[in-house]
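The record is passed on directly below:
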Amino acid sequence: MIQVQGLRKRYRRVKALDGLDLNVPAGAIYGFIGQNGAGKTTTIRVLATLMPPDAGKATVGGMDVLRQPDEVRRLVGYMPDFFGVYDDLKVGEYLEFYASLQGVQGTAAASLRDSLLELVDLGHKRDEYVEGLSRGMQQRLCLARALVHDPQVLLLDEPASGLDPVARVEMREILKELARMGKTILISSHILSELADLCTHIGMVASGRLVREGPVAELLWAAERPGYLLRVLREPEQAAAALETMPDVAAVRVTEDGIRFHCSGGAETAAAALATVIAAGIPVARFTELETSLEATFMQLARQEASA
């Protein structure tokens, strides 16, 4: 649905994008993550046809952002990281105004307004002024604004920024519902733990280049081999020494909660490691695979990019 090839953008001496490639499948919730200044916002602005790249190519739904900007805008709903609202308008009037910009008037506009407010759970706020809404409610209202023309693709730049935990959960559930409706969603964020639960795909960007992308589970597996925790009833140092003799076992550490190690050979190597400890006569109380966090994966890839 979204394809980017060799995208480059420079702000005077600052290189914002340095040959960025990106591939967002149709129907995906694609988490676009990176540190501040990595190039996330610049990429989204290029895709929204708000900023021309210096070089490279970007298409949305097969439409080129430079050659077919009007077609791209019909496909895309854009929610910036910093947005403005008309404080002197009521919530319903705000959406009716944006509906009128899309040529929707009268009863059709009212029906669209009510359906969007129901979608973002603001129906009860229709007759209240925008300035009286909380930050989270204003974010949801701006998401509704981005949906006025029923776009196939949503470009969301830090939509959870500044939200409290409850508001972030509410936003996440709305995005899941939009995905069930068939929308393709590109969402940039630095709140990595929430993206792991929300997204189907992840792209990690550093210094204007994509360092890794793919389905969430595959990316986590590829970036850092699974870790394991082995708890023994006695002689943990001897058990650790036995594990260190295995060629596919690395990073063996004895900790307070047991012996932690990584396997590069997958489940078969993990099973062999367990068998090795048992064969050494050491009783095992627990053996489990540890979850790999998105934060740990991103930090590892960012360090690799910095040292490259």
In short: The two ends are 31 Å apart (CA to CA). The domain at 226-291 is CATH 3.30.70.100 (Alpha-Beta Plaits). The first helix runs from residue 40 to 47.
